[in-house]
Amino acid sequence: MISLKQYPSNFRQLILGRSTLNIGDSLYLIAFSFALVEVYHVSETQLALITLIGRLPLLLSFLYGGYINQLNNKKAWLIRTQWLHVFSIIFVIVAYLSEASLIIICLLNASFYLINNVQNTLNSTIVPLSLNNDLSLINKSIDIQYLTSNVLDIASNFLASLLLIVLAYHTVMGISLPIILLGIYFYTKLTINNQAISQESRQGFSSQLKTGIHYFFSKKDTSLIIVIESFLSGATDLLLTLAPIYLLDINLSLESIGVVFALQRGADFLGALYAPRINMRPKHFFYVDYLVSGLMLVLVFVIDNVWIKMICYFIAFFVIGISGNIFEKMIYESYEPDKLAGIYTIISSLFSFFGIAFLLVPSVYSNIHVLGIGLNSLTIIFGLVIFIKLKMKNKFI
Fold it and tell me: Residue 395 — pLDDT band, cuts 50, 70, 90?
């Protein structure tokens, strides 16, 4: 049984603060998309484009990771960004109510994602500090971090959907504000010591950027897996985006998309629940992940039987659900705690780059059968490459 009681007070306050932010963000983001359709009557294509524009700033997040590493009072900055979070939502509510131009809405949405990314990076760098840099405790804490995140995502998205049935979008956005403000209270209770950053360790922008990127790629196996994960994340998002087209191609109704997404989220959630039982080294888990999930998703596209498709689909996302937990453990195991801000911003940039790149694919090529078989076959190849690479490395050590 996972319990917060076994962790230091600082970590408990951090988790509570992150949880309120998670709930508030979910309410806001669901209401934001709803409002775009209700107020501006945007099409599905426009909605996807606005989402894409909103995430563009994340492409450049690797530029400021080094600066976050050099902040000596991360608690104060965490509280400041939480306040910025609150104000960004207030500005969006005012913009919607005044029916500001769609360009302003896009810019405000982009600023929200930027603030959110900075705050998540700060949170990740404070985790080791809240656990006294105890690696074994950090690894155990990832189980509760990942599980809490999954549970709250599902519950708060469901709650937001229910609230929008009976409440106006701006009311739902408004409800998110006191929830996020509650997080500030928990953050004020943190007793994290300021980190002494020597003048010698401070670097200029170009040196900082070069050092950060070099350090990221110095962990060759880990950085390879991170790049592959970001690539596959974009590919998976693409295939899920094209899922309605695939359902029509195999003579199923569009209403089935609800079953598809429910099956995916359910499998992902069960994978998160099971993840703490996995005892493999993180790097070794990923070739199993790619071989199994890749094979299962290839079978989804080549087998005709709908029930077998569903079983393969469930198995694939169950394994993918486990991988999120293992991914976090790999990051904390591979990189030094005081360098994590730079690492997480590089990861954010990579995921954003491939996410945006794959969203552009349908404008060039949209045969989901070929894309599904091709991309998932590539996943299997990635698994074989990592397997061979790790086995060869162990052979010569």
Answer: low
